[in-house]
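Record now logged for everyone:
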Amino acid sequence: MNKFSKPAPIILFAYNRPWHTAKTVESLQQNNLAIKSDLIVFSDGAKNLKDIDKVFQVRKYVNGIQGFKSLKVIEQKINIGLAASIINGVTEVINKYGKVIVIEDDVVTSPNFLSFMNDALETYITKEKVMHISGYMYPVKNNCLEDTFFLKPATCWGWATWKRAWKFFKKDPDYLIDIFDKKMIYDFNLNGSYNYFKQVKFNKIGRINTWAVFWYAAIFLQGGLSLHPSHSFVTNIGHDGQGVHCPESDKYDVELSMNYPIIFSNKIFEDKLAKRALIEYFIKTKTSFPSKIFKRLQKLINSYQK
């Protein structure tokens, strides 16, 4: 980012996890660009009585955050849910600023995270095909990958985009189910290695209420791409069973990249090596049905033993 550029505003979405929220903010504060960045916090309302105290704790903490150019906290009076909170919040902020960096309350960032995000936003601002900047990359075999590369899927644990791209976002499962044919679904699902499209169907029947798969679909339908680093600038600390749609798991754990600056790719097409590495990772980490049953039984047994 050159000295005349203004850093993108950071949106933090928080709910009822005070410890996770504090870790997220503390890591952001270690970024050199934090003091030059506006921080906007969206705090969702309590879903039930037992969440009221933790929501209060989160709000007390976020209202005292320092170390940023400015702080604005938006407190929802009622619970609107993570998906609606992100969709509404990103739309509101991006329409005002034209670009945005987004994190949730369970993402720990590298001290170079904001530099990477802002440099990428500036580098590809006029490249219409580039629609998303990912701060996270799965723990794939990355020794043969370049510093950065492009893929169709978008990871959303620390990400950024522009108004020119977000305008295509549309949460409409019926539309996607109607327009996607088998060939498109196979490509969307990374050659069948990970069933992204199942999330669309689950949203339709109300089994889940998410947003990220619809953002990926918007990028996919526009022929867009997402920039990824070969080494992650974020790690997710929410897979401890406490988060929304985040079951307990360590298969997404990565080491934070401390290497910066890095080279931004000018090869704006899907990287075949990176795609292959991601497919291999998804296939390798698939949990068999018997294993799922065993884990559920073990968890049930442990709960009775407590």
Notes: The beta strands are 10-14, 38-43, 70-75, 99-104, 107-109, 130-134, 148-151, 159-162, 225-229, 234-236.
